[in-house]
Design goal:
The chain is an alpha/beta fold. The chain is built from twelve helices and 20 strands. A hairpin with a 2-residue loop joins strand 16 and strand 17. Helix 3 packs across helix 4 and helix 5 packs across helix 6. It is globular. Inosinic acid binds next to helix 4. Inosinic acid (IMP) binds next to helix 4. Belongs to the adenylosuccinate synthetase family. Its cofactor is Mg(2+). InterPro entries: Adenylosuccin_syn_GTP-bd, Adenylosuccin_syn_Lys_AS, Adenylosuccinate_synth_dom1, Adenylosuccinate_synth_dom2, Adenylosuccinate_synth_dom3, Adenylosuccinate_synthetase, P-loop_NTPase.
Length: 427
């Protein structure tokens, strides 16, 4: 029962799509377990580039069953348009399975997300504005709408009424907005029922049966470790658990079933939205990383904040996820620097700190302590094995591995499907 979890080890956008896709051919099921269409994977197949937001990247591998687990929040209009976009390009999406227990991002949740951010002003989180936070809030408040509710009009109406009861008070009295009509929301939601029906399944049962039959199941996290609601840089986080434990709750599998946890780690660091980021660069190096790395959000189109590699974060990701391996991505972006700074520790109030401080105040004050590693100028995009890399690139990878606490088992040297060096097989 090989069950692998693949997740972002930093603040998301580490290149998970490429890693998932690399494994796609040998994987039977790819399961998303949290997040929603706030995520964005770019997958390059041949000369075709696909930007996926909600669908698991396994949708592009013909033999693979893509699954949207119970822990995901689903905007039906986004899901349906993503599916039809792929169909138009000749991709067969009929194998998709959608958990009946997944929560639905309703139109009013999207409105609440945008209005709340506006209201927060300077204190805003910089959310993707897709209704993610309010939908998870409804789930926890027990006023959420689940996929299965679309198939019982009376229950759906009662639940929308319950959800809008308080929301309309807040919208009208606090935010000075118009109230939302229950029947309009119900009508819109019911309009999705038939179109989604072919995909709805008891995904917990399907996944566990697949594991019993020794199928290869890959659990794919959205966002990243530092955006985790419990283990990230709260409150500048998303509202779910991208960390490894989220795979168990968000897909309905026991921790004893997970055999491998792979952290995707960019060779430098990026972040979208607000919040602390110790190695962030505000100079021409940051600009160069953004330009060479194409660091612009797949979902929001926002420029990503860029900085040097942070080993403190990588060590933290190893710990909170129990990582067994790293997949190092975008090493090629660093080609051309004479020396590459790597953050090995922080200085906080004059003291050297080796591990991520649990105090938010301390983390906001953390200054990076850098070690300089020699760079390389050779094109590495054609490298097929570790020894094809220039000596300094090899040393950079080895240094990162030593600092981060888990073996680097694959290295991305370019955006294409085949531009990856495999060191240890994941299967
Ligand atoms: P939300 O997930 O839309 O609520 O946004 C919360 C925070 O997570 C914001 O800082 C977003 O920019 C960030 N975020 C959400 N999804 C992603 C992602 O896929 N990659 C990187 N950052 C993300």
């Amino acid at each position: 029962m090989p069950a692998l979890v693949l997740l972002g080890a930093q603040w998301g956008d580490e290149g998970k799509g490429k890693a998932t896709d690399l494994l796609g051919g040998s994987v039977d099921y790819v399961v998303r377990y949290q997040g929603g269409n706030n995520a964005g994977h770019t997958v390059v197949v041949g000369d075709q580039k696909y930007a996926l937001h909600l669908l698991p990247s396994g949708i592009l591998s013909p033999g693979c069953t893509p699954v949207i687990g119970n822990g995901v929040v689903v905007d039906p209009s986004v899901l349906l348009s993503e599916l039809s976009g792929l169909n138009e390009r000749g991709v067969d999406t009929s194998k998709l399975l959608l958990s009946g227990n997944a929560h639905i991002i309703t139109p009013y949740n999207v409105t609440v997300d945008k209005v709340t951010e506006r209201f927060l002003g300077k204190r805003k989180i910089g959310t993707t504005g897709r209704g993610i936070g309010p939908t998870y809030a409804d789930k926890i408040n027990r006023v959420g709408i689940r996929v299965q509710d679309l198939y019982d009009e009376s229950i759906l109406t009662q639940k929308v009424e319950a959800a809008l009861d308080i929301k309309n008070q807040i919208l009208t009295k606090l935010y000075n907005r118009r109230a939302m009509a229950v029947d309009q929301a119900v009508e819109e939601l019911l309009g999705y029922a038939d179109k989604l029906a072919p995909y709805v399944a008891d995904t917990v049962l399907v996944i566990n049966q697949a594991l019993e039959e020794d199928k290869v199941v890959l659990f794919e996290g959205g966002q990243g470790t530092l955006l985790d609601i419990d283990h990230g840089t709260y409150p500048f986080v998303t509202s779910s658990n991208p960390t490894a434990g989220g795979a168990c709750t968000g897909a309905g599998v026991g921790p004893t079933k997970i055999s491998r946890v792979i952290g995707i780690l960019k060779a430098y660091t990026t972040r979208v939205g607000a919040g602390p980021f110790p190695t962030e660069l505000f100079d021409e190096d940051g600009e160069a990383l953004r330009r060479i790395g194409g660091e612009r959000g797949v979902t929001t189109g926002r420029d990503r904040r860029c900085g040097w590699f942070d080993a403190v974060i990588a060590r933290y990701a190893t710990r909170v996820n129990g990582l067994t391996d790293f997949f190092l991505t975008k090493l090629d972006v660093l080609t051309g620097w004479e020396q590459i700074p790597v953050c090995v520790a922080y200085e906080i109030d004059g003291k050297r700190v080796e591990e991520l401080p649990y105090s938010q105040t301390d983390f906001h004050h953390a200054k990076p302590v850098y070690e300089m590693l020699p760079g390389w100028s050779e094109d590495i995009s054609k490298a097929k094995s570790f020894t094809d890399l220039p000596k300094n690139a090899q040393a950079y990878v080895k240094a990162l591995e030593e600092m981060s606490g888990a073996p680097i088992s694959a290295i991305g040297v370019g955006p294409g499907r085949d531009e990856t060096i495999e060191i240890n097989s994941f299967l």
